[in-house]
Amino acid sequence: MTAAALSAPRPRWWRSRTVRRFTRNKLAMVGVILILGLTLACFVGPYLLPFDELFIDLRARFAPPGTGAHIFGTDPLGRDIAARLFQAGQISLLVGFFAMLMSTVVGTVVGVVAGYTGGWLGAALMRVVDAFLSFPSIFLLLALAAFVNPSPIMITIIIAVTSWMEVARIVEAEVRSLRDRDFVMAARMLGLSKTQIMFRELLPNVIGPIIVAATLTVARAILLEAYISFLGYGIQPPLPSWGNMLNGAQQYLDKAPWLAIVPGVAITMAVAGFNFIGDGLRDALDARSDQR
Amino acid sequence: MIRYLLLRFWQSIVLLFIVSLIGFMVLNLAPGGPLSQYTLTPGMTKEALDRIAEQMGLNRPLPIQYLDWLWNMVQGDWGNSYRDGRPVLEVINRHLFATLLLMGSSTLISVVIGTWIGIRSALRAGTVFDYATTVAAMVALSIPTFWFGLIAIYTFSLWLGWLPAGNMYTVGNGSLGDYAIHLIMPSMVLALVNVAVWSRYMRSATLDVMSQDFVRTAKAKGLAPRRVLMKHIVGNALVPMITLAGLQLPTLLGGALVTETVFTWPGMGRLFLDGLGYNDYPVVMGLLMFSAILVLVGNLAADLLVALVDPRIRLD
Amino acid sequence: MTEATRFTPTRRQALLLMGAAGVTTLVPSLSGLGAARAQETPSGQIVVGFSQEPTVFNPHLLHIEVDEGVHYAVFDPLFDVDPEGNFYPLLATEVPTVENGGISADGLSWKVTLRDDVTWHDGTPFTAEDVKFTLELMVDPDFRSWRRTGHEHVQELTVVSPTEITWKMAKPFAPYASILASTFIVPKHAFDGVADKNEAPFNSAPIGTGAFKWKERVAGDHIELEANTEYFGDGPYLERLVLKYIPDLTVLYTQFKTGDIDVAGLQWITPDNYEEAQTLEGKEVQVVGTATFESLTFNMERPQFQDLKVRQALYHALDKQAIIDALYYGVPQPTETYMPKESFYYNADLPKHEYDPEKAKALLDEAGWAPGADGIREKDGVRLAFTNSTTSGNHLREQAQQFFQQSFKDIGVEMTISNLPPAVMWGDYWMLSQFDSVVVGLNTLTGPDPDTSDYFMSTSSAAKGGAGQNTWVYQNPEVDALLKQGGELVSPEERRPIYLKIQEIMRADLPFLPIFQYATIRGWKEGVTGYEANINNRIDTWNVRSWRWA
Known about the structure:
The complex is a heterotrimer of chains A (292), B (316) and C (550).
Chain A: H1 12-24, H2 26-48, H3 81-117, H4 119-134, H5 137-147, H6 152-161, H7 165-178, H8 182-189, H9 194-202, H10 207-230, H11 242-246, H12 258-285
Helix pairs in contact in A: 1-12, 2-3, 2-12, 3-4, 3-6, 3-7, 3-10, 3-12, 4-7, 7-10, 8-9, 10-12
Chain B: H1 2-29, H2 46-55, H3 62-74, H4 88-123, H5 128-142, H6 145-159, H7 176-210, H8 213-220, H9 225-262, H10 268-277, H11 281-309
Chain C: H1 31-35, E1 45-50, H2 68-74, E2 79-81, E3 87-89, E4 109-113, H3 128-137, E5 154-161, E6 164-169, H4 176-180, E7 212-218, E8 222-227, E9 240-245, H5 249-258, E10 263-269, H6 274-278, E11 283-298, H7 308-317, H8 320-327, E12 333-334, H9 357-366, E13 370-371, E14 377-379, E15 382-383, E16 385-389, H10 395-410, E17 414-417, H11 422-431, E18 437-442, H12 453-456, H13 477-488, H14 492-509, E19 512-525, E20 528-529, E21 548-549
Helix pairs in contact in C: 7-9, 13-14
């Protein structure tokens, strides 16, 4: 991931080439299709199903997939799993998306500031980044989740809190490598303020790596949400999320394995989709990838 | 070298301090407290809980509690578990083996398989094998570990009945074979993600080495391809792998935690979840610190190892 | 099943309580116990699986139920309670009563005579000094005693002789007998020279008088106890007792199925496995009632719940039976009260709950709660909407909760689920009544004693500055008066009508909607003899001294 191709101040010319490289990447296209398909299913699907995701029918509990109109079967309360899956997808995708947004903003700001200013502030900021990176974030995430009120917004925030460091690190390295370039010097001589230089001049030049990191962060955030909700510390029922649909599935594993299989496949598809896209973007933005 | 070590040492101390501050704030600023789990014990009264909180010093101002904890910690006293009154380090130590066993065996599996896949797909870059393993690795990275564990339990324990669904050994049977059979599933599940990571890195490391002059020279000198491979490629590609091993430690530890929860494996992950469940703050703090130290030491060891293996890298 | 009854030589009419003036058959001293000592040598081992890990071995420190699994094996109280609610002596030669002169007629003076043939596991003889030490430890200001209730009234503790101890109560306190029945006597000499009793070595290597001696603990895995061959009473018959920690109920059941554990202990077999468990070869399974009742509990301070009609309507909207049958596989029994059916004080004549959504709607209409624009009823600016909380992670309860939510919605009441992690839930949120409503399983009794002052007395609300757990903030002067009266009487026969009346009032007032009385599914291997469930004491090992292999 070199910045050589990105460092020129006018980004427009590489754009089309990047897009072309991206669209030629089959895996990335599979990713795009997966994500578009899932998003469509989750946001439109509920309107097409004959069931409400909250409607309880104790007589219909544990119906295997394909029972009547229950294409994915029913859960221990007799609710339709397909309806829940799609509603859950909305939550999980939104949590993933907003956690990405938050952590990208925080990570970018920290990275740009640390990379450009350097000195004690930069060093201090990067030590904080290192601190967050130096314990398994899942420990921190669980410690946070176990003690806060688990609303979707809180869950989004704590996932963001444990996910911003990668972006910060990448951006810091990029900005540091750019800060003594000619165009920055020029901006400085023109009398632009620090803030203007950082966010008007430098930021557009590191946008590529940020997008890549952001895409991968969505994938990560979805995985994290799933895990903490699986353990019961995340999104709380009756609000469904892919993770909390799995919560309790272990108990019914031999009786109703579809409770575990269906949401897990959805999570894998979503995460794989974002990973494919992120990887495709990275290759597309990486000038060297033509040589490979 | 000494200067480098000193610098790293001081950086680590600062890091640990920040870690402890974050951890302490997270645990103590949240509502509820370590005693609330006893509320529903028959006969429990508010009076008793308040009194015990007072006796345990839980009512003191947080900065005082933190400084108290920090001061003891610096002196090697990590506090006592609220649950069984044993020193935190002793408690962690008792769960360490299980986690190390799991991490060790899964690392062994993932290094062996990952290296093989990585080199093979690098040597055959662009073939079906390369493409297939690339896709497989990306998919593997996308599967939630805990879910994969559930599916493995369903398949191999409930459906096929080949392997035990959890625990480290059968009660009353501590034989080596018994351990081994319990270890298979969790270590495989934990290895899945790591195989993907290792094979990806190995592939690009191998490609990097292959493109370098000395390999071409060696080929030109007419050395047998296999020897070229073994001597140069593997030797050189392994250097970044050591760094990777260090960097992967937090992920591996996190993965072990996740795996342990699914397989009721009696390691540090289990201890951490129990600690959270019982609000055993000293143990939770201890584990946060312990894992941070483990990661720092791991990274440092990786750096030193790289310096030893690769004469081109000097640490100063 | 029959083994343990040897400890309960009294008949049903001897029901309870010491001090019982009307009771003529005193629980006799179990001198037979001592005589039966020269029995067979202990042999074999039993592995009990627990889903929580016992970690607190000093029985007087703050602990959870599972810890008592060890306490009952290693220690003895002065006397204990059997499943029928009768006391039987252990370290005491007889249970003190008014009849035998152990308690004065006013209930204030106590005298307990002790066995002279008891030694601690380390060989030191057991004396009245140990009893004195224990009772003083409970109120030691520096000791983190988990319970002072009752003990705080004890004054003038006097060791008359090594086998006799006396004290005075500051006020008559009927539940004290039940409290003593779960107060394990600990050795004074183990704390000699120990500066901080909270950190005594004893706390991690307990020394008791019980049928089993402490052997070792493998943390996170199991605890091993070995037979105390010098035990003063009947038993033990087992050479070894292993308490195995299995942190997952599914695995606990699997290991019970495969025979890895001999007894499926605390948290027991989950209801969804009940049907299959009954068919298992070579396993015995039994459903046993417990003193814990599940309820939908209201914060009576909230304007939504001040109208009795609202509470009645919500009760009618609950389909209890559907929840019990579907979610709990019919294992627990529906109930109308907080008192377990097995209790002598259980009121069987309370009005039966009817599931009738139409009636619920009618009640609300009648009381003037009319549906608003969004279909949710309201009255005088108060929306009939509230939050409901419980511990997150309790799957069955969360499912029941969602079912309630739908049932209430059908009658125009909005219940929002807001579950919290245990640390938050059972802290101030619960204690200071910061909730609207809660689904909770509570045991409000003290062993077999029917006193519930800490829960229902109007002065027991922490939200109002009280020290108890009246988290409903339930205020009823009549109940207050009855509780006070009942706590001062000693005769079970005299106390009974009072507690029947309290249950009647609670059923009418509905500060909580009683749903069911919890039942647990016990399971043990065929051949395990002596295992018996005890409603007054949920932990499996309460009579482990008489367990054996057939």
